[in-house]
């Protein structure tokens, strides 16, 4: 079965960076885009960007272009998202999703706090 | 970018009631997709490509629409339907989500 495994939580200091993972299994990793979505507490969903493992192509929401960097390790079927220069506005749950948003990871809760 | 506006923001429904949630797009989109999100969980795909039920989704859910106006209908609300519902377009980058409708059960 299709699974996307994400770490549960990350605690990071303001100004620092964080790199979170999304390990895929149960399907051909290189065939489907991986999307990343942000959800702040009590708020809606925001699309950050996507990456195509078959060719390494990326697309970003303009809002997140200077904040997020999407990368891959196809050898381990893992997608990564790095967030830089973190502030309290970046405290949120970050989801990865694939197969046209049919499958979602459990999300990584990023808390930015000194 | 295409802005999706959902209404109402909050809906209160009785068990067995038929309800319709709407999603209006600022520009025409080819399809609309709908997700259900229960508290503390990941979004779950309900309807894809406007009117297709995702795997395992009860038949009381249905979707319709075209162009700039789409809707999600629950024919007979059940207690387990209490959740947030989001519409979503991936016709035009950047992909966007509606602000959500919170469904409460009376």
Structure report:
- The complex is a heterodimer of chains A (114) and B (106).
- Chain A has 114 residues and is mostly beta strands.
- Helix content of chain A is 0%, strand content 52%.
- In chain A, the strands form 2 sheets. In chain A, strands 2, 4, 5, 6, 9, 10 and 11 form a 7-stranded mixed β-sheet that branches. In chain A, strands 1-3-8-7 form a 4-stranded antiparallel β-sheet, with no helix packed on it.
- Chain B is mostly beta strands.
- The radius of gyration of chain B is 13 Å and the shape is globular.
- Chain B starts with a strand and ends with a strand.
- Chains A and B meet through strand 5 of A and strand 5 and strand 10 of B.
Question: Short description, anyone?
Answer:
Chain A is mainly beta and 114 residues long. Chain A has strands spanning 3-5, 9-12, 18-25, 34-39, 45-52, 57-60, 68-73, 78-83, 92-98, 103-104, 108-112.
Order of helices and strands of chain A: EEEEEEEEEEE
The unreliable regions of chain B are none
Biggest sheet architecture of chain A: 7 strands, mixed
Largest sheet of chain B: 7 strands, mixed
Determine the fraction of residues in helical runs of chain A and give it as a percent range: under 10%
SSE topology sketch:
The complex is a heterodimer of chains A (114) and B (106).
Chain A: E1 3-5, E2 9-12, E3 18-25, E4 34-39, E5 45-52, E6 57-60, E7 68-73, E8 78-83, E9 92-98, E10 103-104, E11 108-112
Parallel strand pairs in A: 2-11
Antiparallel strand pairs in A: 1-3, 3-8, 4-5, 4-9, 5-6, 7-8, 9-10, 9-11
Chain B: E1 4-7, E2 10-13, E3 19-25, E4 33-37, E5 44-48, E6 52-53, E7 61-66, E8 69-74, E9 83-89, E10 96-97, E11 101-105
Parallel strand pairs in B: 2-11
Antiparallel strand pairs in B: 1-3, 3-8, 4-5, 4-9, 5-6, 7-8, 9-10, 9-11
């Amino acid at each position: 079965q299709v699974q996307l495994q994400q770490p549960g939580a990350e605690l990071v200091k303001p100004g620092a960076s964080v790199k979170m993972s999304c390990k895929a299994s149960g399907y051909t990793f290189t065939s489907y885009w991986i999307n990343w979505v942000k959800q702040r507490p009590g708020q809606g969903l925001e699309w950050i960007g996507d990456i195509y493992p078959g060719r390494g192509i990326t697309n970003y929401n303009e809002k997140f272009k200077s904040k997020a960097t999407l990368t891959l390790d196809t050898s381990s079927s893992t997608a990564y998202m790095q967030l830089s220069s973190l502030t309290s506005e970046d405290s949120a749950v970050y989801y990865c999703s694939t197969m046209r948003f049919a499958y979602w990871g459990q999300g990584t809760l990023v808390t930015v706090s000194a | 970018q295409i802005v999706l506006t959902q209404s109402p923001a909050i809906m209160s429904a009785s068990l067995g009631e038929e309800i319709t949630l709407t999603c209006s797009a600022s520009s025409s989109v080819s399809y609309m997709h709908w997700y259900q999100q229960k508290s503390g969980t990941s979004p779950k795909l309900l309807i894809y490509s406007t009117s297709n039920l995702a795997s395992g989704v009860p038949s009381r859910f249905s979707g319709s629409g075209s162009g700039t106006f789409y809707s999600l209908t629950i024919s007979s609300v059940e207690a387990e339907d209490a959740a947030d519902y989001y519409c979503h377009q991936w016709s035009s980058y950047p992909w966007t989500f509606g602000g959500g409708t919170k469904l409460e059960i009376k």
